[in-house]
Amino acid sequence: MVGLILIFIIVAGFLGTVASFAWAWADSLDVPPAIVIGAALAIVIGAFIAWAVADSRRLNRRVQQADEDPGERLRERIHNVNQAFGDAAALMDELRRDLEAQQAARESLLEEAERQQRLLNLNKDEAENIRRILVGETKATILAERRREWMFFGLGFVASAVASIPIGIWVNHIS
């Protein structure tokens, strides 16, 4: 009872302080003091009522907890712990399966990378062989063209020599 009287005295003092500040504020705003004091007191009383309701709910919750059987509370906590362990085990199993799936995917990717590397090496070897063949064919083609050019030069030289001798004799004979 003494606590309630003390709370009442504190609240009354607080309300008086709010009223005096509201009166001074009302004078500076040129508003009737009753409106400002009423609004300030309504806000303060509303806040006090909200605090009282919240405190009452907290007190009721504590009373309900005190009324509960400690054994029942312990059983409920044990049940919650067991349920949490069950959930954790299920999550661990799911994580294990996900990890295994990721490892399988990683292994398949590594195998695919190795296969691609082998194909790349094989393609490099084939490309080198093709380059050698092309270079060899190109050299052979160049040599064949050079021989053909020399042959045409030689045939042209022989043909000009063969044709120029009778022409030279004929020219000498005419002159």
UniProtKB/TrEMBL annotation:
Superkingdom of source: Bacteria
UniProt KW keywords: Coiled coil, Membrane, Transmembrane, Transmembrane helix
Coiled coil ranges: 92-130
Membrane-spanning segments: 34-54, 150-171
The name this protein goes by in its record: Uncharacterized protein
Organism: Microbispora rosea
